[in-house]
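Q: Second attempt. The first request was missing the SMILES, so the protein and 2-acetamido-2-deoxy-beta-D-glucopyranose are both included now.
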Amino acid sequence: MQPIIVAILGALIRSVAAQDGPPQDFGEAFPSGLAVLNDGQNGRGLKSMPTPSYTSQRWPGGLLPEPCASIGDAYGCPRTDFEVYNVTYSDCPVPKTICRCSNSLIPFDEIAEEFGRIPMAARQMVRTFSSVQTGGCGGFSNGADIWLVGACRGSPSVYFHEVGHMLDCQRGGGRGFWSEMQEWKNVVTQTSDTCVSDNYAKNGWADNFAQTGVMIAYDLNVAPITDYPVSCMSNQISKAREVLLGAYSPDQGRCTQSVKQGRVLCVSDEARAAGLCSESQFKVAAIQESKFKGVEFVDLEAVIQVCTGFKRRRGVPVPFVA
Ligand SMILES: *[C@@H]1O[C@H](CO)[C@@H](O)[C@H](O)[C@H]1NC(C)=O
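A: Got both inputs this time. The predicted holo structure:
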């Protein structure tokens, strides 16, 4: 009996999940998926978005931001196998933290360049950005941290999808994802819209919003998204455009906002014994906010808690928003 019960339960969970999202019978503006926006049309796509120059400093050994440790734990990257960097882009003095597992198939410079394509206003609200290797290409975000899992190369659309989840959670302001509230659901179901972006967008409201966000990134930075046949979702486009305008517009000028750093861990007894976790080392890893005059540091800890659903898979927490 056991397997049958499990099968029925599985089907139940799936149909409930399917109901709580865009209508499954909606059309798809991009039947083959949004990856087409990476190359775009006429030789211009998300890949042609500019990336600022940057400098990087590697953190001292033994120290690891907590969110990087959690994706490492979930995907089999030992905590001591991470390289952690401060990456300072030319458009903002506040460095970003990038954690790369040594098994990642994406070279550090490529991660830094791809991440740099995210317009500054959105990029500065990312707390940590991690890359670990696994099969395929996917990602997660909890509202401040972005985890790329797998060899996602030549796919800025995946980066923008994850940043879309992050901004969606931040807009929820501690009440969960904004896209799961009535306002966005009404835009999808109570207007003349008859389609969503693609099949992936039918996974749920959050994926629906994140995919529309990829289209808005294209629209604001590459070429009008209306160059594609997207009129069947014009209400979603105009609402998402309004929501993401500040975050995704190019040339936002000076950076005035950044996210507060989270906890930094000393990752092994060996590291501690070797003196790699001393107070002075922690100081080298910490962002001293007072050094950045005119930048407001936003604490997202409470907001993130609400958007972080963790499935326990083999005892390790796996973030659930993909
Ligand atoms: C990283 O950047 C912060 C902020 O500028 C700085 O305090 C810290 O010393 C830097 N760490 C390294 C390893 O350069």
